[in-house]
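4.2 Preliminary Data

To establish feasibility before requesting continued support, the project team ran the inverse folding procedure on a target of 66 residues. The structure was first converted into the token representation described in Section 3, and no sequence information of any kind was made available to the design step. The complete token record follows.
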């Protein structure tokens, strides 16, 4: 077993509780990023996303984006 799996398996319930307490959720229970979080305004992936949407002018992912 790799070290990370061993680390997490030692006290899985402790980690689940930690994640549950530190995950912001909306009224539907979906995990969301707060507008106050610096990651909310992260634009590093914008260029890659736009390229993905325009590969050969057609993309399965692009058809899902409205």
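Position-by-position output of the design step:
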């Amino acid at each position: 077993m790799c070290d990370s799996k061993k680390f997490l398996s030692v006290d899985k319930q402790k980690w689940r509780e930690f994640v549950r307490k530190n995950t912001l959720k909306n009224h539907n229970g979906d995990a969301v990023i707060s507008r106050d979080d610096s990651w909310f305004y992260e634009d590093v992936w914008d260029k890659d996303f736009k390229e993905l949407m325009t590969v050969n002018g057609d993309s399965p992912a692009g058809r899902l984006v409205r």
